[in-house]
Amino acid sequence: MEDLQLCTLYSGSKGNCTYIRAGEDAILIDAGRSLRALCGGLSAIGSDISRVRAVFVTHEHADHTSALEMLAKKYGIPIHITEQSAERLFPSTRYLQANAVLHPPLYAVQIGGMEISSFTTPHDSDMSVGYIIRLSDGRKLGYATDIGHVTEEIDENLRGADAVVLESNHDLRMLEDGPYPAWLKARIASNRGHLSNEACGKYLPRLYAGGTRHVLLAHLSAENNTPSLALASAKAACPEMDIVVAREGEPTRLL
Hints:
This protein is of the alpha/beta class and 255 residues long. The protein has helices spanning 35-44, 62-65, 68-75, 83-89, 96-99, 152-158, 172-177, 182-189, 197-209, 227-237, and strands spanning 4-10, 17-22, 25-29, 52-56, 79-82, 100-103, 108-111, 114-120, 129-135, 140-144, 163-167, 214-218, 242-245, 252-253.
C-alpha cells in the first residue's frame, strides 16, 4: 500500500492549506497564509516545498489564495485553478498568470500516483470547487470546505472516500449571539456560506455508511466556533468514526 500523508498545515478564518502526499509526490490544496507560514508548516511535518508538485485552488477568496503569488514568483509551482477564480485574481497579481493552469469547473489532473478531480460546491465566490484524490492503490480521499450546504454533487463525490476533510465552520448559537453584523451572519448561515457544526454532524452518518472512516473537521471560525464544540457535535452524530479537528495555526495530521 502506498505511503500516504494527509494533514492541514493551517485551517480556519485566517487561512487554509492542506498537504497530501502519496509516495514521493505531494500536492497542496489552497495556500491561504504567507509563504513563510506555508514553508514553516511543511517543515513541521518533515517535508519541504521541493516535494510539492502542484497547488489546487478551491476558490479565489484570500484565506485560500494569499500565498499563491509568492509561490509562483519564487518556486514556479503549477497552480491549478478554475477560469472564473483566475479571472478574479489575475488583475491584482503579476506572477500568478505565468504559473496558473486554467480549468473549467470540472477537471482532472494526474500527479504521480494521484488523480485529482474537482466537483463544484455552493459558496459565495465566482467559482468554488472541492476535490477528490484517487490513489493508485484504490484509496480515495475527499476535500470539501466553504460549502453552504451538502449538495447531491458533493455527496456523490465524497461517498466512498476512505478519509474526508470536511468543513465544520460555526456553531449556530455562537453565530447568532456573536458580534458579527446581521448581514454577515446571514451570509455565513446561507446555502452559499459555510457549513455549521450541526449540518456537518447530520451528514457524517451518511459518509460513514458509504465507507468513510476518517474525517478532519476543517475551516473552524475563530469567532463562532470552538474545537471542543465541533468535535462534540461530530462525535455525538457519528461516534464510530475517527474524527480529528484541524488546529488553526499549526499542522493537524489525519493520515
